[in-house]
Amino acid sequence: MSPQVASARAGRYIRQPTGYSAFLPAALPPDPPVALVGELPSLLSQADRALGRLDGSVLTLPNPDLFVFMYVRKEAVLSSQIEGTQSSLQDLLAAEADLFDESMPRDVDEVVNYVRAMKHGLARLDELPVSVRLIREIHAELMQGVRGGRLQPGELRRSQNWIGPAGCTLATASFVPPPHEEVPQALGDLERFLHRDDGLPLLVKIALAHVQFETIHPFLDGNGRVGRLLITFLLTECGVLHKPVLYLSHYFRRHRQAYYDHLQAVRDRGEWEAWLEFFLRGVIEVAGEAAETARRIQLLREGHRMAITERLGRAAGNGHRVLESLFDRPIVTVADVKGMTGTTYAAANNLVAKLVELGILMEMTGYARNRRFRYEPYVRLFTDDVPAEGAA
């Protein structure tokens, strides 16, 4: 492929009347077509198998939705951290449990919004395909009332934006997306590509679509987070995964500079194949980690059920009831446990104390009153890096 053809393969830079150059993406699929040669066929096969194993691992869990509950929150934290937020998974869980303190990062609302946007998008997939309309709805949920919320939530941008280090201008930006008047057409082309039966392997199609969305950069803020959500929605919509449990933000964050470099290499030099290799390696790695987490959740649940049965005597039934609820609500109070079990406050307090002794719950506030307890071993599965099965 000649340098001239390669450089125009993803689109071209167009000089604007005010002097800067903006990138106008070519419609997908790439021309010349993606060459699935070299390592790509093997990586594609490995990625497909890894997704199949992940799907099977999650579906064997007693309640797969409880796994989804925490995985969505982990993704919300990691994807938001790529954009500069400081909030952790513990901050998010505390915020959702209405446990606020002065040390909590102010940007935790952005992560809460991410969870809401994810839930909204997944619910809407039952009645609406992945489309410009759905993307706008997700963006509105993501940006409502937070930093950047004044920048037209759910509305396509009506001015030029750019990407680069803090303080850069249009003239010094690392990348300038297409002018705003080109955005509706570019997004329409992307939507048509997503639903066209063109014989491309699904993972290839999703990888191409992610780059294209980030290149169009249709909103004034939140493009990175929406673009990463798009990967999950497409995998779920197409039935590759029965539950939305593949989130590449962990991989993109771990290899952040390489991620940005690959996106730019596609635009500048048409290096789609190198991006596909990077993307598929991420799918393989993250799917393996998620499958291993599912296995550890199963072992954790079985171990704690056995401990409760053996150690809590007549309170074991209520102990099991509380344990199952912790997978969906990992931070609780004694009053919460009282409500779950229908016992007296004293009995609930005694049960919580026994769960603390078993290492299932951990007191997290340090208060004498209004104490909160976290299902620490479970939360830790999502905050520690979990190597893929078979990895060192």
Can you tell me about this structure?
- The chain has 392 residues and is mostly helical.
- The chain has 2 domains: 38-292, Fic-like fold (Orthogonal Bundle), CATH 1.10.3290.10; 312-383, Winged helix-like DNA-binding domain superfamily/Winged helix DNA-binding domain (Arc Repressor Mutant, subunit A), CATH 1.10.10.
- 57% of the residues lie in helices and 4% in strands.
- It contains 16 helices and 5 strands.
- It has a 3-stranded antiparallel beta sheet with strand order 3-5-4. A two-stranded antiparallel sheet has the order 1-2.
- The radius of gyration is 23 Å and the shape is elongated.
Blueprint (SSEs and pairs):
Layout: H1 3-7, E1 11-15, E2 21-25, H2 40-59, H3 64-82, H4 89-96, H5 108-124, H6 132-143, H7 183-195, H8 202-216, H9 223-237, H10 249-254, H11 256-269, H12 272-311, H13 316-326, E3 331-332, H14 334-341, H15 345-357, E4 362-363, E5 373-374, H16 376-383
Antiparallel strand pairs: 1-2, 3-5, 4-5
Helix pairs in contact: 2-12, 3-5, 4-5, 5-6, 5-9, 7-8, 8-9, 8-12, 11-12, 12-13, 12-16, 14-15
Order of helices and strands: HEEHHHHHHHHHHHHEHHEEH
C-alpha geometry: elongated
- Mean of all residue-level pLDDT scores: 88
Rg, alpha carbons: 23 Å
Pfam family, one: Fic_N
Domain Fido: 130-281
Keywords: ATP-binding, Nucleotide-binding, Nucleotidyltransferase, Transferase
Subunit structure: Homodimer.
